[in-house]
Amino acid sequence: MKSSKRTILGFLLACLAFVAMPVAAQAKPTITISGSTTVAPLATQLAKGYLKSKKCRKNGGCVKFKILQGGSDIGVADVSRGRVTLGMSSRIPKESDPGGIVFNEIAKDALCVATHTDNKINDMTQDQVQDVFSGAVRDWSDVPGSNLNGTVNVTIRTAASGTQDAFDKIFMAPKKTFSGASQKASNGLIEQQLQRDPLALGYLSLAFQKGVHIVNYKGVPCTLRAAKSGQYPGTRPLFLVSRGPASGASKKWINWIRNNKQALRIASSSWVPFK
Amino acid sequence: MDEQYLGIFDESEQASKEEHPTNRRVELMLGALASLVLVFIAGMVIFVFLKGLPSLTGNGISWFGGGGNVDEQLTNIFNSPAEPENYVYELSAFPLLWSTFLISFIAVCFATVISIFSSIFIVEFAPRPLERILEPVVKFLAAIPSVIYGLLGVLVLVPWINDTLITEEMRVSVRYVIQLDGTSVLAGVIILTIMILPIMIAIITDSLRAVPQVWREGALALGVNRWRALRTVSLRAIRPAIVAAAVLATARALGEAIMLAMVTGSIGFAPNPFDGFLFFLEPSRPLAATIIDGAEGLSVEPFGQTMYAFAFILIVSTGLLSFAGWAARKSLSRYSIGAK
Amino acid sequence: MSTTTTRKRKQEAVRQTRAARPKKIKSKDSWSIGDRIGVGLAWFFGLMLCLVAAAITLYMAWKGVSFVNWEIISTSPEASLEQSKTGGFLDPIIGTVLLTVIGAAIATPIGVAIAIWLTEYGRPAPLARFVEAGIEVIVGAPSIVLAIFGLLVFQQGFLSPFSFTAEGGAVFGRSFFAAGAVMSLIALPFVVGGTREALNSIPRHVREASYALGKDQASTIRRVLLPSSRSGIATGSTLGMAQIAGDTAVVVVLLGASLQISPEGDIPGLDVLKGTGSTLTSFVFQNSPAGEGNAPDKAYAAAFVLLLLVILLNLIVNLVTRKGKQVWG
Question: Cα B245 to chain center, whole Å?
Fold first, then answer.
């Protein structure tokens, strides 16, 4: 190799070494968390809040958090094998989940029915929701309260999603969602669809309300206050999963999340807090 | 007299290849390395196979058939009870298989044609400054993550298809079966073509450049014009490379998950060719996209096994594709440049 | 009188030269319609390619460049509910560079070695076919399957030095090592493909000349064939790095997609490799509508920076493998 090329390669290797040398970590009890991408933002916020809280600052920093993602599924699998301390799950425990794990609820999420901003429909009863989402009613002109005409584009989440599971159980039971409905992989994509397609109809988590029109359900608006007071019926729980009952540092943290005012305030920014 | 010379070359080649111990050692080392990689890959294939087997055996040959609603079946599998005896496996995966085949095949056909012409353009006809820009641009296109292609599709292409190509009467005509909202086979094919173009263009331009100058000069000296010289000499010579590029591109198309999940509608529906133009506007979902959509549910035993079964089918298809590519290249290599 | 004769002679000379010059063929076209269409299509598709590439780049630039500033590139990402407080994406940038370099560094030598074995040796033939098929199978498997398999492998006890072990004794399995190893697997087929095509385009007489001069096969490969296939190796390597930079599934599953790089252990340098992190691609995924994030502007800015990084990496590879035009005529 020519010497100029050797120097370039050497420079690159040096850069690599330089980039890979940050400060070494200190030792503290570590809470490792992995799992649902829905719960991850909440968990990260709560972790940050906990580290800033008086309890932790008094002891000079009490715990170290390591938060990863990977999906509810990987979270549950990891926690049941002991690879992580806590798992994050946005789906209700199923029978087929591994044994020995405990689902600790830390907050709730509300599901709102939403449409495009052109669609001025104000309120939908459960029957109406079931009719449209199951495909029995296919045209907006047949839906009372809507000012549009045209085929409804029903948008739901994918089959394996915890949110879809919750929607089915809370809103749709015993009917099934329309088999031809468009499936999207995340809240963001449904929001995207609702923003672009005037004929679309879907459901979103409480935190995703930008640029769409939220429909009242059973006469109750889908807001944080209504969900907190229990008036709004469409809520589902978010969990931190532990192996056996929570203990040690994780138990302290979960108690803090459930009881501390600061924690409840953090949770209420986009979710429904525990209390 | 020619035979004499050929004999000398044969002998020296044989002597070069066999008598030197270093050569043998190098061959063994390289072979060992290749085998090691093969063992790892074989391990993965066996893992996927074993994990996916219950789904295949639970259905038998009807796994490949059609008839049911795939999404409903997948939901049932996801919700199966916890006891292993009661696991639900029923699946008729034809819509997914048809969708995978359709989207990948059409995309690769388009990509092959476009990449051949583009490569010719880059190597022969492009003005120098344009050529200097185009080559890095092509390689840069290959690096765009599939998420971004997916976003481009969702933000630009899908709404455009929804507003421009889909009319209300089209929607009404399929109203009780599926929805037309822009996510469609067409959107998937367009973006998939753009995604696999760079792979093919990069390999084909390299091969075009490597065609010996004398071959083309000979053709030109015979009075053939530039285009004909290219077509009859260079393109013929690089046919094995085109096949190799096409195989790599098809494999990439088969494995593309995230972009297709976002852009083709994520419904397990088999588009019906007899619907005419509507056919391209219908949503569907290929195998890889199904796997990525179901990634959240892998720990539910039967559901995970179904996903692994999908992966196994993809792997087998790619393996068959690779063998087919090798057979095609072998028959084409008589007129090509290289050694064997 | 002499002037008239000279003029006449000059005119005669000119007439004769003109007559001697071959007449211009006044045919209507020397290119048939088919050929013209061919050239036309080549120009059409070539220009369309330029347009599409320009459109994509400009769109991403338009969406993202207004948010790219020095601050965003140099601060670490923070978790926050307000976009203004979410910090930058320094850690994802480091993650992308690290992963791409590790993956390419592992894949290139192994890929070149395998390609050499496939084209030059390749005995026994069935083994060679299976190796080739196996390598192409990697391209066809969705990267999430590769990631899950990689996770399974790296969660085995004997690989625990490559990630970290939780209190329960279970191996975590997620780290830069693990992700880098699987990423190199993803890049491998492209390196093999590019190198193989380059080696196959070297004419037979070059090898014969080398043997005739008394070199054995191994040194022919090393001294004659490899240097001339540099452009093919570079192409394969660049394509491979492109696949690495653009991959999300492996990052989410094998690297943890944690917001910041969290090193593991005490040895500087090694602790980052054993720790988890994220890349620009996973950052884009999480913050775009495809993920759960609510910061699409940052996502587009990150996408733009990613593309700049890729251009930079490509330039570096080109510089290192530059050579003059190889003529085998």
Answer: 10
Confirm whether A20 is domain-assigned: no
Q: What is the pLDDT of residues C85-138, one digit of tens each?
A: 666 778 888 888 888 889 999 999 999 999 999 998 888 889 988 998 999 899
Q: Do B295 and A160 touch (CB under 8 A)?
A: yes
Residue of chain A with shortest Cα separation from B177 = A180
| Whole-prediction pTM | 0.83
Q: Which residue bears the tokens 């959509």?
A: B293
For the domain that residue C133 is a member of, what is the CATH number? 1.10.3720.10
Query: In whole angstroms, what is the distance from residue B92 CA to residue B96 CA?
Result: 9
Inter-chain residue contact B142 with C197, CB threshold 8 Å: no
Size of interface A-C (CB pairs under 8 A): 122
Residue C197 C-alpha, separation from nearest chain A C-alpha, in angstroms: 23
Domain CATH number, residue A159: 3.40.190.10
On whether both A227 and A117 belong to a single domain, the answer is yes
Q: What would the pLDDT profile of B247-299 be if each residue is shown by its tens digit?
A: 989 999 998 888 998 888 778 888 888 777 888 888 888 988 888 888 777 77
pLDDT, residue A3, reads 60
Rounded-to-integer distance, Cα C302 and Cα C61, Å: 10
Chain C residues whose beta carbon lies within 8 Å of the beta carbon of residue B306: none
In a domain, C288, yes or no: no
pLDDT at residue number B103: 92
CB < 8 Å to C173, chain A: 83
- Which residues in chain A touch residue B303, judged by CB atoms under 8 angstroms apart? 160
Instruction: Judge: B293–A159 Cβ closer than 8 Å, yes or no.
Output: yes
Q: In terms of DSSP bridges, do strands A200-205 and A86-89 run parallel, antiparallel, or are they unpaired?
A: unpaired
The nearest CA of chain C is from the CA of A254 a distance in Å of 19
Interface test with B, best of A158, A165, A169, A241 (most B CBs within 10 A): A158
Selection from B328, B335, B318 nearest residue B250 by Cα: B318
> How does pLDDT run across B69-124, given as a tens digit for each residue?
888 888 888 877 777 777 878 888 888 899 999 999 999 999 999 999 999 998 88
Does the beta-carbon distance from B294 to A183 stay under 8 Å? no
Q: How far is A161 from chain B (nearest CA, A)?
A: 7
Q: How far apart are CA B194 and CA B148, in angstroms?
A: 12
Residues A214 and A266 in one domain: no
Domain with A207, as residue range(s), is: 110-234
Nearest-CB residue to C258 (from A68, A84, A210) = A68
A43 and A88 co-located in one domain: yes
Q: Is B108 exposed, middle or buried (0-12, 13-18, 19+ CB in 10 A)?
A: buried
Does A213 share its domain with A128? Answer: yes
Same domain, A160 and A229: yes
Looking at the 3D structure of chain C, how many domains does it have? Answer: 1
**Contacts of residue C31 in chain B, CB cutoff 8 Å?**
225, 227
Q: Is C325 inside any structural domain?
A: no
Tokens of A266: 């953090």
Counted domains in chain A: 2
Per the CB < 8 A criterion, the answer to whether C241 and C316 are in contact is no
| Closest to C114 measured CA to CA, from B37, B329, B202 | B37
* Closest residue to C242, CB basis, from B117, B142, B240: B142
Q: CB–CB of B203 and C46 under 8 A?
A: no
User: What range defines the domain where residue C225 resides?
Assistant: 89-280
Give all chains having 3 or more CB-to-CB distances under 8 Å with chain B.
Answer: A, C
Same domain, A227 and A119: yes
Q: Evaluate whether residue A185 is within a structural domain.
A: yes
Q: What is the CATH number of domain B97-335?
A: 1.10.3720.10
Are B262 and A185 within 8 A, CB to CB? yes
Residues of chain C with pLDDT under 50: 26-28, 324-325, 329
Whether C292 is in a domain gets the answer no
Query: What's the mean pLDDT when you consider all of chain B?
Result: 84
CA quadruple B95, B101, B104, B107: dihedral, nearest 10: -100
Q: In Å, what is the CA distance from B260 to each residue of A20, A39, B71, B213, B285?
A: 35, 26, 17, 42, 7
Distance CA B285, CA B97 (A): 9
Enter the ipTM: 0.81
Flag if C59 and B156 touch (Cβ within 8 Å): yes
Of C98, C172, C294, the CB nearest to A19: C98
- A50 lies in the same domain as A72: yes
